[in-house]
Description:
heterodimer, A: mainly alpha, B: alpha/beta, Rossmann fold, 6-stranded mixed beta sheet, 7 helices, 10 strands
Amino acid sequence: MVSMDPAIDGGRVRQARDEASSAPRLRVPLGNLGAARALLLPLIILALWQLAVNRGIYSWSQLPPPLDVIAAGRELQSIGLLVPNVLVSVQRVAIGWGVGAVVAIVLGLAVGFSRPVEGLLGPTLNALRAVPSLAWVPLFVLWLGIGDTPKLTLIALGAFFPVYTNLVSGVRQIDRKLIEVGRAYGLRGWGLTREILLPAAFPSLATGLRLGLAQAWLFLVAAELIGANRGLGFLLIDGQNSGRADIIMLSIVLLALLGKGTDWLLARGERRLLRWADTFQGTA
Amino acid sequence: MAEAVSIHGVGRAFPGRDGPTPVLHGIDLHLRPGEFVAVLGASGCGKSTLLRLIAGLDTPTTGEITIGGRKVSDCDPRCAMVFQEPRLLPWRTVAQNVALGARGVPNAETPEAMLERVGLSGSARAWPHQLSGGMAQRVGLARAFVRKPAVLLLDEPFAALDAFTRLQMGDLLREVCRDRSRTVLLVTHDVSEALRLADRVVLLGGKPAAITAEYATAGRDANRLRAEILGRFGLHEAA
C-alpha cells in the first residue's frame, strides 16, 4: 500500500529534483550561516555602539561602552541585586501572563463558541479593550494598594486581550464541517471543546499567547516603573535617578534577552504542537 | 446489531427570504434490519438533508424518524456517518482519526484492525495531509466502520474519487456489509453504483423532494433496470 501513496513518495522526488536544478546556481552566502544568521544584526549593532563610544558622540554618562555594561552587571551581582531583580520580574510576567491567558482562553472559547455568550460579553470586552491599558493604573493602585497585586493585575490585563481576540477569531474560522464530525461521533460540551475547538483554533491561540507574552513584558516594565522596589523596571528607574546609564542599558539588554528567550520557548512548544499542520514554512 | 429505520411523513423546510422553503416533503421509507438501500437523486435535491435527519444532525420540521423503534433525537450514537469529503481531523494521525469513531463504543473494533481491513495499516501514524484523496476517504470509512454501527449512513462517499478507486471502495463497502450486521443507507447520484451495491433503490425527486419510485434489485437485470431508472430522470442511453 505504501507504493500507492504519491503524496509521500512524490514529496521526496520533488525535493530531490529541486536540489538538482538549483545546484549550478550561485547560493546566497546567508544560507550557509545557519543559526548564526540571527547573530549578524546584533553584532553589527554592537559594533556601531562601540564605534559611537570611540568617536565620543555621547559622553560616558549618556552612552557607556558595551564592556562597561557587563561590568555594571557584575557589580550589581556582587552586591546581590542582579539575579533577584531578574527573578522577580520573570515571576511577575509568568504569573500575570498565566492568569491573563487562562481567563482569556475560557472567555475566548465561550464567546467564540456561543453567539448568546458573545452577545452578552463581546461588546463589553471590546469596549474595555479600547481603554489604553495604562489608564487603569491609577484605579488599580487605588483599589489594590501598591503591592504586587496591582502589578500582576495590570500584566494579566495586558496579556488577556491578544489571547482573547485571537482565540475568538480562531474559533470562528474553524471549518464548520469538522465540528459536525465531532457532533456526529458523539462529542459534546467539554469533549467537543477539547477534541475539536481547541486543536482547530490552536494556530490562532498560539499567535495570541505569543503576542500576549510580549504585552506582558511591556506591562511589567510599565508597572515596575510606576512603583516598585524590585524588578527590572525598578533597576531602570534607579539607573535614571542615579545617572547610571550603564545600569539602564543593562536592564534594556536583559529585557531583550528575557523577552526573546521566553518567546523562543513558546515558539518551540507551538512548533511541536503544530506538527500536523501543512502550512507554508517560508522558503529555504 | 442492525436496526430497522422508519421514516414517517418526514418533511424539512429551511427558513428563506420569502418564508420557509420546503426541501423534503412527506417522505415515507422503511429499512429492514440489515437492508442496503440506495437513495438516488439529482444534486441538491435534498438527499443529504435526509441523511442528516436520520443521523440526528438535523431535526425534521414534520414527521418522525425512528431507529429500532426509538425516536431519533440529537446525534444518534447508533448511527455512523461517512461524508462526501473525508473530513479527517488534521491534528490527529490516521489511527487517532479512526479511534474517534470507536470513542464511547464498548464493543468497537481496534483502529489498527480496522485500518488493516481498509488496507492502510502502513499509514497508521501518517498525518491526514500526507494522504491521497482515496486513502483519506478510506480512513473516513474506517472511522465509521470501527464503530460497528447499527445504521451506516453514506453521503456520496465516493463522489470525489476517480473511477478506479471508486470501484475499489464499492467492493470494500460490499465486503464489510456482507454479513448484514448493519443497515445501510447510501446516498448517491451514480445509478450503476446504486444498482451494484443496494438491495433496493429509492428515487428522490421534485421540489420539495419526495420519493418518486422504488426498485428492488434482487433477480432483476441490472442493465434493464438502469435504463428504466435513467428514463425516469429523462435520460436515454444510446443502444
